[in-house]
């Protein structure tokens, strides 16, 4: 089964590892790196599963659990270096569905993911809806992008950048945030690589790349997507 999984993990390397394993089983994945974003995206996107690191800046994983359980029953898999019985009980008491400690065997983590998704399925999963901004549509399950019903051929990195931007229309993402989405923790990729990706995306999407309708530069900050048509 394909599902939409939200991963909240502040360690970029660990987040990329989780993304790769989840995508290897054809799940759609959105990665965030702090608790505030986790709460916002869970409310906005209604994931089928949240993989939640406990030790995060700002709101930690337990605070995220408190906020989520006010109005959401999304299955939550807690991931943490804390391994005492008290730590596990605190997570379960707040409504976590399962718990895995670091360092973990990725095969065990994926087995727990499959188990949680199977348990959640009978109650009726929300479909993973395509992302839409104006007439631009990104289908996470089919890994496809269309503009006015015209297919747009994107590289995997371009797709992940576009996915991150379309998940939050109007929000400005820095070059580094976009590169983390596209490549994970790759110290050999400079921030100018983000400019190259956006240049290629504009060439593929915009009628006039010099006057973009969708992909906008916010000088000194980064990029955002907004429909100006």
From TrEMBL:
Stretches assigned to the Response regulatory domain: 4-117
Record-level GO cellular component terms: cytosol; protein-DNA complex
Pfam families (alphabetical): Response_reg, Trans_reg_C
Residues in the DNA-binding region annotation: 128-227
Sequence ranges assigned to domain OmpR/PhoB-type in this UniProt record: 128-227
Residue numbers carrying 4-aspartylphosphate: 53
GO molecular function: phosphorelay response regulator activity; transcription cis-regulatory region binding
Transcription found in the keyword field: yes
Residues spanning the membrane: none
Biological process terms in GO annotation: regulation of DNA-templated transcription
Top-level taxon: Bacteria
Keywords assigned: DNA-binding, Phosphoprotein, Transcription, Transcription regulation, Two-component regulatory system
Entry keyword annotation includes Ligase: no
This protein's name: DNA-binding response regulator, OmpR family, contains REC and winged-helix (WHTH) domain
């Amino acid at each position: 089964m394909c599902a939409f999984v939200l991963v909240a993990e502040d360690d970029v390397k660990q987040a990329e590892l989780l993304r790769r394993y989840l995508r290897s089983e054809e799940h759609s994945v959105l990665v965030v790196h702090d608790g505030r974003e986790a709460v916002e995206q869970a409310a906005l996107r209604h994931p089928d599963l949240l993989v939640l690191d406990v030790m995060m800046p700002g709101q930690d994983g337990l605070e995220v659990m408190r906020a989520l359980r006010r109005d959401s029953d999304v299955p939550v898999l807690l991931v943490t270096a804390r391994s005492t019985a008290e730590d596990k009980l605190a997570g379960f008491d707040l409504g976590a569905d399962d718990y895995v400690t670091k360092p973990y065997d990725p095969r065990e983590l994926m087995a727990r993911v499959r188990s949680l998704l199977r348990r959640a399925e009978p109650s009726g999963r929300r479909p993973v809806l395509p992302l839409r901004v104006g007439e631009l549509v990104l289908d996470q399950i089919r890994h496809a992008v269309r503009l006015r019903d015209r297919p747009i051929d994107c590289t995997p990195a371009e797709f992940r950048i576009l996915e991150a931007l379309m998940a939050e229309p109007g929000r400005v993402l820095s070059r580094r945030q976009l590169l983390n989405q596209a490549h994970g923790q790759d110290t050999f990729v400079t921030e100018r690589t983000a400019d190259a990706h956006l240049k290629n995306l504009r060439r593929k999407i915009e009628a006039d790349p010099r006057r973009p309708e969708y992909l906008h530069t916010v000088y000194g900050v980064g990029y955002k997507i907004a429909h100006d048509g």
